[in-house]
Amino acid sequence: MLNIENLTVSVDDKTILKGLTLDVPTGEVHAIMGPNGAGKSTLGYTLAGRSNYEVTAGSATLNGEDLLDKDVHERAAAGLYLSFQYPLEIPGVPALTFIRTALNAQRKLRGEDEMSAPEFLKTTREVAKSLKIDMDMLKRPLNVGFSGGEKKRMEVLQMALLKPKFLILDETDSGLDIDALKVVSEGVNALRAPDRGMLVITHYQRLLDHITPDRIHILVDGRIVHSGGPELAHELEANGYDQYLGEAA
Amino acid sequence: MAFDLFDPITWPTRRDEEWKYSDLARHLRITPRELEVSTDIAAPALTLEGFHVHNVFGADYSGLEAAVAASNGKLWLRHWARGRLDCVAGFQNKGRIDLKAGEHLTLFETYEGKGNYAVHSELELTLAEGARLERVVVMDEPETATSVRQSTIDTAPNAQYVQTVVSTGAAFQRFESHVAHAGHGAEVRMDGAYLLKNKTHFDYTTRLDHQHINGVTTQTIKGLVKDQAQVVFQGRILVQKGADGTDARMRHQALILNDGARVRAKPELEIYADDVQCAHGNTIGNLDENALFFCMSRGMDEATARGLLMQAFIVPVIEAIDDDHLRAAVLEFVEAKAGGFYGV
């Protein structure tokens, strides 16, 4: 599914990712853990195609399709979804308008028919209900004045409606209290599917108690230094990243 | 403020501080010809129900008082100027509306026209105690027009004056409001939104004079400029000695979409009272790249994302319009105009 090979990335002439190699097979959920500054968010932004993230070496493909030579929106249409650590507020654009514009833009790019307004509303209503999102909230400008939990629920709503093939969750747990974390995790778990992959980027093991990964990779100084099963999260929580910092050097 | 459109000696120039960035004399050069007003009017650019329509040809405000009386609180003043091709047709006149104590009026002003014309119109508005005037202005004039619209607004305690000006510019266009703020619970809101392209010029000048205690003022002005368009925003809030408890806030935000476009902003707070809350903020910049990336990461191509964000930038000003029908009509107008900005 997602295959990253020797990925090297610079931001403002500073090399952040230094030959990162990672494979996430179809249907699996992998987690990336690592200390601050390791390059976790850089990985997400690079895969999504943010402009000042310069790939100097390596490759990244999704289902065999080269991601790196596509524009940002083409990657989205190819099925990649990056959930932001801090979803942006878009004043003046109702959440419903935003999501429908995005959905139909993707469909158009894939050569599919646009989704009609009634069909979109019907689908949205069902998904919103499962995420405990009030329809009135969707008529308000996207994320403006929303709490951290509400913003993350909006992210999950968008994932559920846009139906991406591959999800990257960047620090989805930040800014969430226990209850919100539960709702968001349930929403994400509901999206686990045999034909969908996920990459969960996180600092803490807390999120991984709710979204159990198939594999955990430890990212230190721009490289994966260790990989293991879900039990690795607890080991890290107990011992910290210190033992891996030496390996990166 | 007074000048005579038909007497070049009285025309303001850049040497007048108030007209420094909008030099009328330099723009006009030749005296417009005072011609008979044509009542040949085109269909309006937007549709609106529930308003009593009164046409103002050139700057002819005759019959205004009767129109207000017949309006049932919702009046649409359709300003229309038909210019010429062989010369510049000139129109100049004054109008006046007085709101009695407690009276409410929603005044929708549209400014439209065709051909070469120069108009200088003045409106005098007075609000007695507790009166409320919501004034929504749409300036949709041709790129050949010269248009100077001045107004004075006199308020009284507990009155509410709300002004929203939407402009797409003209060859030379200035909308100027002078408000005497009565304080004592009176509230003033003077907002604006502009979408300028090509070689247009729009000047939004607001003057607020807080003369008494406990007056409230808010201003939000937002705009988009591209091509060689020029915008001038001059906002002055004067808080006179003794006008304690004044709460005045002014915000101006502009997006410049390419190198040739220009915005000159001159916010001024002049405060002579001690116990006041005043603030002004002014930002001029480009579209937020983070927001653009966010939209695109959800599948929107760059043009769609830019269009959405530009519209989103302007729309909050329009959404503050109180009258439901009017808000919907102006929103539709702005969305249609914002369309021309997508391709940047």
From TrEMBL, chain A:
Annotated organism of origin: Asticcacaulis machinosus
Gene: sufC
Superkingdom of source: Bacteria
Protein name stated in the entry: Fe-S cluster assembly ATPase SufC
Keywords: ATP-binding, Nucleotide-binding
Family affiliation: Belongs to the ABC transporter superfamily. Ycf16 family.
Residue span(s) of domain ABC transporter: 2-246
From TrEMBL, chain B:
InterPro entries on file: Fe-S_cluster_assembly_SufBD, SUF_FeS_clus_asmbl_SufBD_core, SUF_FeS_clus_asmbl_SufBD_sf, SUF_FeS_clus_asmbl_SufD
Transmembrane segments: none
Domain SUF system FeS cluster assembly SufBD core positions: 93-313
One Pfam assignment: SUFBD_core
Name recorded for this polypeptide: Fe-S cluster assembly protein SufD
Originating organism: Asticcacaulis machinosus
Gene name for this UniProt entry: sufD
